[in-house]
Amino acid sequence: MHKITISPVTRANGVGTVTVMVQGNRVVQARSETAIFRGFEIILKGRDPWDAPYFTQRICGICSSFHALASCHAIEAAAKAKVPPNGILLRNVITGVDLLQNHIRHFYLLALWDWVTPPRGHPFAGGYTRDFRLSGAHTAMFHEHYWLGVDHARLAHEALALVGGKAPHNHGIIPGGVSMFPNDEVLRTLEERIGRLKSFIEEVYLPDVLTLKRFYPDYLHVGRTSENYLSFGLFPRPDGGWHFPPGAIVAAKKEAVDFRAIRESVAFSWFSGEGGKIGVEDTVPDMSRPGAYSFVKAPRYKGFACEGGPLARDALGTREAKEGNSVLARHEARAREALRTAQLLKHWLGELRPGEPARDHFVIPRSCRGMGVTDAMRGTLLHYIDIKGGRIRRYQIVTPTAWNLSPRDDSGQPGPLEEALAGTEIGDLEQPIEIGRVIRSFDPCYSCSAHVLQLDRGTKTVMEVRA
Questions:
Q1: Which residues, including other chains, have CB under 8 Å from residue 55's CB and lie 6 or more apart?
Q2: CATH class of the domain whose range is 2-466
């Protein structure tokens, strides 16, 4: 039995550790560990509820707009506020272009070097040297496309800033709707940038993912989970429908989401208490908890560890990624979702109604509570707020990566990443490139997943192999 520890996991958002046990050349058990406690739920206690969307955006700079959205949804649910159609559409524009920058950035800046040898002098050069299968011509093409990916991820952030004020941590999404309605010049500029993004996704990004499928067909079967999926819905319609509808698939059965069926286990997490229903317990770290190995809780739906993100939305919707559940199916679902989002962005701009309101002005009751949900880039995002005497009494956040990268729960059931790693064959224990390919197919965001970093421990990259 061999133990391989990769710490920190590189080319991911934030800092995490993955440990696998290998028998022969096959992973038999995996642990996904996050050693950072962020404490946002504690920071928000006692604050004005209007502050929540701005504070929670700081959880992560890569998906901040969705934290603002979920936080606003929670406040609006508590106050029974209704967002006008223009507010819904402009929120979709802000989060839509933010989703595009994430998907493009993830593939070209972070995941690409699992499959393509980096150019000489590149920051990620000098790593693993095995199992790179592309021809010289294809490698050169991907090197060129890498820079195009950088440019277009930036272009998406520029588009976000046009309606959100800045990126990341925008000022556009506020309780009740959005802070401004763009003028004609901004709308024309937005349309031009969205057109360029759509062309890049259609002509470069998606074809690049399909190229990887040709060279790495075995990864259509690597990194599988039990195909339990969960989505809270992405991009609502002003008429009350969804462009990516919510739903769950558990034990091969598709159903509407029952939010009462969500529980958080802390059996293997550094938190006190028993876990359970959202909004019942405060978030209190406890590093002395026996057997714990992560600052991520283990959310479960009806007892199932559910995968979220583009693959889940695909399974619940159009099912365009034909190969089902695997490493490259996740990449393909992400690219196809980016293309559909780019198409929808132009549609939303055309639906805007100049002269009509983009925000509902309302008063937050001094005592109320609400839950706000949305899908984000990586999956389901939930914010819960409990207001007492005009101040936040309790705040809870359940992030997408908490679902995807969760530790085991009370029953010993692994999280989706841990399950996906089990069974993976390692070609060379000294260069376990397969592990990173599985991890990064989930587009992990450890910054979001953690709910105080011990500075005296330091951080370093370790790949430990023991007999």
A1: 40, 43, 44, 47
A2: mainly alpha
